[in-house]
Amino acid sequence: MRVAILYPLFVLAAWTFLILVLIAVRRLGAGFAGRVHVSDFRFGESAKVPSDVCLPNRNYMNLLELPVLFYVLGLLCYVTGQHSPLQLGLAWAYVGLRVVHSLIHLGYNNVYHRLAAFALSNGVLLAAWLLAAIGLPLD
To answer: Using CA atoms, how far apart are residues 58 and 82, in angstroms rounded to an integer?
Structure first.
């Protein structure tokens, strides 16, 4: 089923929106608790913003950086008809690893574990791009 290659894109986009909601929840919660003031966000996030309030925003930025290549690749695979089980498996692995990265980052935040998830996701994305490049016609 050709459209199946798009499902991982939808899931990662949904995860990104969920993290966006978490940013609002953390910021509003900190504001109502008097832990931050609106001026702390005037030019982004000031040094006064507690780490538990900053982390969702940093994670959100992570989900908008390298995953752009994932979205482009997913659309490329859809348009060119590259929807092999391997390519689909790599796409789901990438999404899973990005979710794991977020959960580590926003949870217990062990830098080594987070780095492992990040590095593995990047390796999976690279492999998916190489697979797509091999599958493209040379005409």
So the answer is: 33
Residue 47 clears pLDDT 90, i.e. is over it: no
Helix axes 67-80, 51-64, angle to 10 degrees: 30
pTM above 0.85, yes or no: yes
Joined tokens for residue 91:
């796409």
Handedness of CA 91, 64, 114, 37 (dihedral sign): negative
Q: Token digits for 76?
A: 């490329």
pLDDT: is 7 or 37 the higher one? 7
Residue type at position 42: R
| SS3 label, residue 89 | helix
Closest C-alpha among 42, 45, 71, 68 to residue 56: 45
